[in-house]
Amino acid sequence: MRRLSPILLACAAMLSAGCYRITVQSGAPAAATPAVNIPWAHGFVYGLVPPSPVNVSSQCQQGVATVVTQQSFINGLAQFLTWSLYSPQTITVTCATGPVRTSAISTQAPTVAVRADSAAVATREVQAKR
Question: pTM value?
Answer without folding.
Answer: 0.66
